[in-house]
Fold these 2 entries.
Entry 1:
Amino acid sequence: MILTPLLTLLSTTTATLGKILYAGVNESGGEFGVFGVKGQGLPGRFGVDYAFINKTTVDIFVDQEKINFFRVTFLMERMAPLAFGLGARFNETYFSEYEDAINHITLTKGAYALIDPHNYMRYNDPSSQPFSGSVIGNTSDPTAATTKQFGEFWGELARRFRTNPKVVFGINNEPHDMPTQLILQNNQAAINAIRAAGAPQLILAPGNGFTGGHAWTQVTGANDAPSSEFLNKMVDPLRNTAIDVHEYLDIDFSGSHDECTQPGPSNLANLTTWLQQNHLKAVISEFGGGNNQNCFQFIDDLLNYLASNDVYIGWSIWAAGPIWGTASPCCGEDTGSLEPGQFNDLGQPDAFTTVWANAVRPNIPKNLKRSGVSSLS
Ligand SMILES: *[C@@H]1O[C@H](CO)[C@@H](O)[C@H](O)[C@H]1NC(C)=O
Ligand SMILES: *[C@@H]1O[C@H](CO)[C@@H](O)[C@H](O)[C@H]1NC(C)=O
Ligand SMILES: *[C@@H]1O[C@H](CO)[C@@H](O)[C@H](O)[C@H]1NC(C)=O
Ligand SMILES: *[C@@H]1O[C@H](CO)[C@@H](O)[C@H](O)[C@H]1NC(C)=O
Ligand SMILES: CC(=O)N[C@H]1CO[C@H](CO)[C@@H](O)[C@@H]1O
């Protein structure tokens, strides 16, 4: 019924589209306000502890910058409260606040929105992310949510968005320090549930090691198998799933240093080969760099590399969002967030005026995907 028209759209590709289909920015804030003490900020106050977007700045990004892609973070412990457990029962207040943000981006502005449960594939204690909380599907941990529950959660989320062609489903933010096979299982449960809900949109699936592109073919954590050994085994009946990759350009790939020293192109080379060999595509949904010429060059190099390699279909830089204040989501106190109209910790204009203007804006493709169901092509 609903599936049929969307599927019809899915099969119509437009010849004039560029190779990079999606380009944009992270909208971070929906996961804020829980850090420190266990239970802090749950459920939290909208507009105080957490917020999703500032509609005015989304409008600036779409109308003036012509981007078409926003990754919008939220916290699973708020969407599926601990009192209910992970699953299909949502906090309707939080959901409607989130839906309002997604609808503004997609229905009002016509851009694509990547739905991002910002949970590191963990659930039940976000107070010390990325390390707190039980790993989803850990059968040795009686307090852990199960893979089945994770599927139920995704089935419900997908059901609620299945008629909106402009959403993209991001399975989870940055899994790490867990068996790579379990990431595959959880990803597969999400894919199955999304498709069973009748939702045909693009899905982005993460790997291990904070889904770092540079480490795709490497052991991560204590001794977790490389993402490359398992992430080519996912099955999507609609063949509309891509790999979700994060790639920072500083010394330890964390995005916490001012200086860029890790070149994107050479660090992504093995991932690129793996994607080609496995006929897969990827979106770099997080990257970033500081407010300095060296980083501008590194970002420029990265975005040029993505543009010139077929396997990459999109990117979103970390991060804008309504409640960063002067805090720097990336790369030093002189950077600040990418939110238009704000200031950095030194009281100077934030990264929208510096990093975005120097390194991102010149790389925004003109022929981004503007219509149709989110897809690989
Ligand atoms: C749902 O979220 C709202 C807004 O944050 C909050 O006031 C309410 O207590 C939450 N309900 C549950 C069951 O968590
Ligand atoms: C799974 O749970 C067990 C028991 O709590 C714990 O020892 C183990 O570290 C957990 N595994 C992961 C990947 O977190
Ligand atoms: C890329 O693959 C080669 C060959 O397997 C390996 O020697 C090298 O360490 C890998 N590079 C990275 C960054 O993982
Ligand atoms: C939203 O963004 C606009 C434009 O930068 C700014 O003037 C306004 O203060 C912001 N609103 C909030 C609530 O931050
Ligand atoms: C630079 C930066 O803030 N990177 C962060 C990107 O988001 C993930 C998830 O919140 C963090 O782990 C990174 O530190």
Note: The first helix runs from residue 3 to 10.
Entry 2:
Amino acid sequence: MAEISAEEVKGRRRERSRVRRALGLTQAAERARYARSELDRARRREAARRWKARNPEKVQAQRVVAEMIRGGHLTRQPCAVCGERAHAHHADYATVIEIKWLCPLHHMRQHALEGRLAR
Ligand SMILES: [Zn+2]
Ligand SMILES: [Zn+2]
């Protein structure tokens, strides 16, 4: 057994409580972050539900696109403007076949150009 001085013992104790304090803080922060993300998820779910209720034709168009991709009739493509990951934009929801692939940013811009709200 190695002898340790009283000073060393004190130093180690200080170090341990410092680590405990730091961990306690991160745990609290982690819990707060988790609670926030849960709230965000619930809000997003609710917003998505309301959007679907308001836009049945768009939900239908998205369903058709998803089915066409699954069936191999359509391939998901990168954004036509910047090459980022994109989703389908319908020039007209009545003509589901006319699809432009755009990332969220350029999708929003496209809708601004067309003068109607996104999606
Ligand atoms: Zn883009
Ligand atoms: Zn769109």
Note: Residues 8-54 form one domain.
